[in-house]
Amino acid sequence: MPLTCRVCRLFLLSIALSVTLAGASASAQTEEPREERGTVTYVTSSMVYGDLGRGNGLREGDTVMVFNEKGRIAMVRVLHLASKSFSGEVLEKNGTIVQGNALHARVQPIEIPEQPGRTPDSTAASVVRRPEESAQRAEYSPPAGNDSGSASARETRLHGRFALQYYAMNSSAAANGLVFSQPAAVLQFTAEHLLSLPLQFSYYSNHRFDARSDAARSGSTQERLRSRFYQFALQYGGDETPYSIALGRFIPYQVGGIGTVDGAMVAGRSGKFEGGVIAGAQPGYTNSEVNLNDQKVAAYAGFTDGASGWQLRSNLAFAQTYRDGALDRGYFYLVNSLALGGEVTLYQNATLDLYDADRGSGNARPHLTDLYLSTTWRPERWLSLTGSFADRRSVYFLRSFAALPDSFFSTSRLQNYQLSAGVNISGGMYASVTTSLRMQENTDKAAMAYSGRFTWSNFLASHTNIYLLGSYTDNLYNTSRSVGFEANRDLIAGLYAALRLQQYRYVYTRSDRTLDRFAVAVDMYYRLGGMWYLSLNYERYWEGGAASDRIYSEVSMRLR
Does residue 142 lie within any of the structural domains? Predict the structure, then answer.
């Protein structure tokens, strides 16, 4: 109870701070919102980058929808912003995000009152809107070109990318050269409307080479060249047709948790309803080879409805996996999202496993293994409040003895409560505060985390954006705190650069040992014409008396 009260008090203080800071924007005059469209330019394990920016009307805290050829697959919150690009965190995802995916954002211009003593700057952020407002509108239409009835849709279109990458890491403590050295090639493309039919072919692969010396590879059992094939599929029909058929290697986004399938999917649509069945096998885990030992079957049903001011989407899926024909796992997966009047958004997903290998019997015992609830409320144009709850358990398979551990503790139940508040402030400023409480089953102690963020776009009319962030976490085994600073700007047309500084301190509670880490990073991104892109990331960090360097670079060609 005392810990929960501390969370509530901090949350209330953050709301009070947000209200105080936002007073200057309360009297702004609004105009009708407009929709901006762009493209995903780069994806990491935790961040999504796109070619929409401040010039399109985005602000820190806004949300951007991600689409592929099947429809909406993700919602991304904008964290870092430049005039023509942004990076953000994934809030909600039901599919794999790749470069070339379409971006949709709904922005709302606001006339910012002129400040005494300052000359209005045409490149300053001229948009203040509710964070996550785009999630509250009716679902966006699929990216242009998916309407098979239009003249342009009947023409064959090819879009995707080809990229050459290099990732390396070195440390002063290493005795055998580079700790990591990996050149790679990525090929991802989709050919739509083949033979003037609603027929498309999709391909996506990644090929990596371990370029370390023989001495550095001593003890490694993996081959130098590794290839992963994520998609190789032919599909007839789509969201705009009464039925669709997919054959090959694909990810059925309608069935959460099933992963990639080598097989077939048949789906049908009528009015507000959609349903389908999937059958196939799990690709091999080494080089994505064809593997018929692990079989998968699934079925799903979806419902979408909405009118002016509200939108409902529901999807229920059932899936079973097998190992050599014997049942390995069976579960239901349910997702619901509801937007009400542009003010409230509700989201839920849940996984109900039907069998329990952890108890030893393997008999049917329905039990909840994953529950996530989220509510976002926008009481004012400048203020956004979000609360979420997660309850997760590890999942153990009956035959393969595989495991899906929870996201924080490896063996037992985890409950996570999180509250956050974000506010847009006139003059290009944005502030947010987040606090969370994580509780482990059969443990009295709880893990606490606090974090804050402040952004000032076009700082003092210098065309530079600055970010200040800090966090404190009390885990079960250690405490950590960090502070960070970032400055970025568009240097010349098409060239974006950022400098990041961050300091961490870890204290291990059982031994009172302290570990300090300091990192300096430089990011550069350059768009050369309409097809070619260059990116570079360099980071140096000092930890425990040793210095390490990381470098990541990419040259890519994008087809649209």
Answer: yes
Q: Of 181-185, 355-359, 431-435, which gets the smallest average pLDDT?
A: 355-359
Beta-carbon count within 10 A of 326 CB: 10
CA 57 to chain centre: 21
Range of the domain at 65: 34-109+123-146
What does each C-alpha distance from 160 to 19, 157, 201, 551 come to in angstroms? 44, 10, 12, 25
Cα angle, residue 281 at apex, residues 279 and 286 outer, rounded to 5°? 155
Tell me if 85 is assigned to some domain: yes
- What are the tens digits of pLDDT across the range 56-75? 778 776 778 888 766 678 88
- 482 domain-assigned: no
Amino acid identity of residue 410, one-letter, is: S
Instruction: Report the Cα–Cα distance between both ends of the chain, in Å, rounded.
Output: 55
The answer to whether the CB of 244 falls within 8 A of the CB of 253 is: no
State CA 190 to chain mean position distance.
Answer: 22
CATH code of residue 132: 2.40.10.340
485 occurs within a structural domain: no
How far does CA 483 lie from the centroid of its chain? 23
CB 226 within 8 A of CB 206: no
DSSP at 292: -
Which neighbouring-strand residues pair with 229? Answer: 205
Of 224, 231, 335, 370, which is closest to residue 288 (Cα–Cα)?
A: 231
